[in-house]
Amino acid sequence: MHIAGEERATLHAVIETVSSPLDIDQQLARVVDIATEATGCYAALVYLREADRLVLRAASPVHKHLVGRLTMGVGEGVAGWVARTGEPAFIRDGALKDPRHRYFPELHEERFQSMAAVPVPDRSGAVVGVIVLHTAAPHEFDEEVLAFLGHTAALLGGAVEHAGLYAEASARVHQLTTLTRATEALAAATEGDAIAVAATAGGRAMLGARLCQLFRLDSSGRELRLLASDPPGAPVPRPRSGALALELLDRAGGRRSGGDLWPGQADGAVVVAPLVASGERLGVMCCLVDGGRAVGAADEDLLRAIAHQAAMALQRAELIARLTERDRVKDLFDALEGGAPDPVVLRAAPKGFNLARPHVFLHGVPGAAGPADWEAVAARLQPRLHGPDHACYLDAGLETLRAAVLLVTGEDAGAVRAACDEVAREEGVVVGVSTPGRGAGDGRRGMREAADAARIGQALRPAGGALAYEELGAYRYLVDLDLARAPRDRHWTGVEALVEHDRRRRSALLETLEQYLARRRSVVETARALYIHPNTLRQRLARIERVAGLDVNTEDLLSLELAVKLVRLHEARRQMPSGA
After folding, report:
1. Does residue 222 surpass a pLDDT of 80?
2. Cα separation of the two ends of the chain
3. Average pLDDT of span 11-36
4. Is-contact 121 153, C-beta < 8 A?
5. Residues 6 or more apart from 391 whose CB is under 8 A from it?
6. Are strands 465-468 and 429-433 parallel, antiparallel or unpaired?
7. What does pTM read for this prediction?
C-alpha cells in the first residue's frame, strides 16, 4: 500500500483540514476521507477518548452509520491497546487472531486481514485518540504509509486538543453568562418561592443538568422541605432522601448516584451545594447530571456560587416577610385597641389571621423584677403556642408584649394559659389571658381583658406567672379605679397594717384574709384551700384581728373584701419599678 500521489500534497490537505474553521467532527470526517483515498485501504476509522472509553467519531462510508454509537474501553481491542500504551500496532496478516483483538460484529471484521492503528497524541504526549486502517487482503504497511499516519496523527492531535480547549472555554463562557443571568433573576425576586424557582432554573442551566432541586431546612435543622424543582415535573425525591442530601452536604465533595435520591435516575450523578447565609445553613441544592460526563470540583464551585446567591436572597426575603408580618400584627393590635371598625381591623390583619376562629388575646407586662426582654419572651412563647392546630401572632414591644392565639375550640384556652404561666414564671413577667371569643368585636374585648388581667396580675403574681381574666373575680371591677381617690377608712387602714406586718414578718395574713372572705367566712373551705388545719386558720384569724384592729366576722363583708383588693392593687402599683 503506497500513498497515492505526492506525500507532501496529501499532508498539505490534512493540514488545510485541521486548520479550517470546520468543527472537530467535520475535520475528522475529512481526514478519514483523505486517509482512505491516499492509502487505498478498505476502511479508515478515528476514535477519540472520552474519560476511560474510546468513541468512534469518524469512519469511511462503509461504517459511517456507527459514528457516535460504537465505543470500547481503553485497553479493549487493538485500538484500546494503542490508546492505553501509546504505541502503534501494525498487523500484516490474520488480524482476528491477534491476542489483543476483540471482535466487533458491527464492523464485519471477518473481512479484514491487515490492520494499522496509531495513537493520536496531544502536545503533552497524552493519547487523545486512535487512527485505524483496515485492509481486506494481507498487506505490509510501507514506510510512506507509516510516515503519513504518524504525521496525520500528530496534526489531528493538535486539532482535537484545540477543539477541546475551545469547547471548554465556550462552556465556561456559557456557565458564567448563565450565572450572571441567574444572579440578576435572584436579585429581582422578592419572595421565597420566586427565589427558589430562579435558583433551580439557573443551577440546571449552568450544569446542563437533567434536574435541579432546592431544599429548605426546617426550624429544627434536621428535616428538608422541597421548595422548587426544575423542570417542575421532575421526580420527587425518594422517602428519607432528605437525610441523604444532608449527609452529602456534610461530607465535602460528596457525589453519589442519582438513584440514591430519585427513582429511575441511577445513571446520573448528584452534585450538591449548601445554602449558607451569614453563617447559617438554610438548606441544600441538588443537581442531577448525566453520568456519562465527568463531574468535578468546577461543577461544585458553580453550583455553590448560585446556592450562595440563593441563600442570601432567601434570607433577605424571609427577613422582609417577618418584618412585614410583624408590622401587620402591630397594626392589627393597634386597630383593635383603638376600637377601629371591623373593615379596618380585617384590612390590618396579617396573612392567615382569621378572627372568625376561636381565639384568646395575651398581654405581657413586667413583674416585680423590672423591665423584661420581650423579644426573648416571645421567642420562648412562639413554639409553645404555634403548631399544626394553633396559630400564634406576637408583637414584642419595648415595654409590653401583645399576642393573639387562634384556637381549634374555646376549650383550648386552658392549655394556652398553662403554657404562658410556665414561661412567665421562668422569665419573671406577668401575662394576662383573655376569655375565648370569635370575631372582631370579641377581639376588641379580648384585648381589654388581657390588659386588665395583666395589670391585676402585677398585684397577684408579682414574681411572674399568667392570670386569666376569668380568674379575676371582683378585681375586674376595680382595675380602672383611680386609687388615689379611694376612701382611706378604717378598713383601708386595717388592711394596710396587715400588708406592713406581712412585709416585716414574711407572713401571709393578707392572703389568708382574702381567701377567708372569698369563701364567705367558711373556716373549713378556707383551710382546705390554704392546705392548713382549721385550728391553724383560727389562730391566723385571731392574729389578723389584733394587727388590723378589725372583727373579721362582724365587719361588712363587701366593704372589707373591697378594701383588701384596693390595698393590694395600690401596693402593687406603688412597688412596681419605674416604667413597668
Report:
1. no
2. 107
3. 70
4. yes
5. 352, 353, 405, 406
6. parallel
7. 0.54
Structural contact between residues 355 and 349, judged by C-beta atoms closer than 8 angstroms: yes
Cα 164 vs. chain centroid, distance in angstroms?
38
pLDDT for 1 equals 44
pLDDT tens figures, 45-82? 888 888 788 888 888 888 888 888 888 888 888 888 88
* Of 94, 90, 162, residue with least CA distance to 131: 90
Asked if 91 and 110 count as a contact pair (C-beta separation under 8 A), the reply is no
* Cell numbers that stand for 535 in this block: 385550728
Cβ-count burial 375-403 (b if 16+ within 10 Å, e if not): eebbeebeebbeeeebbbbbbbeeebbbb
Place of cell 392589627: 332
Provide DSSP, 274-295.
EEEETTEEEEEEEEEEETTS--
* Number of C-beta neighbours around residue 158 at 10 A: 16
Domains, in order of start, for the chain: 7-167 (3.30.450.40), 189-319 (3.30.450.40), 354-477 (3.30.70.270), 484-575 (1.10.10.2840)
Alpha-carbon torsion 560, 561, 562, 566, what sign?
Answer: positive
The beta-strand segments (E) located in 422-496 are 429-433, 465-468
3-state secondary structure (DSSP) of residue 58: strand
- Per residue in 507-532, pLDDT (tens digit) is 999 989 989 988 889 999 999 999 99
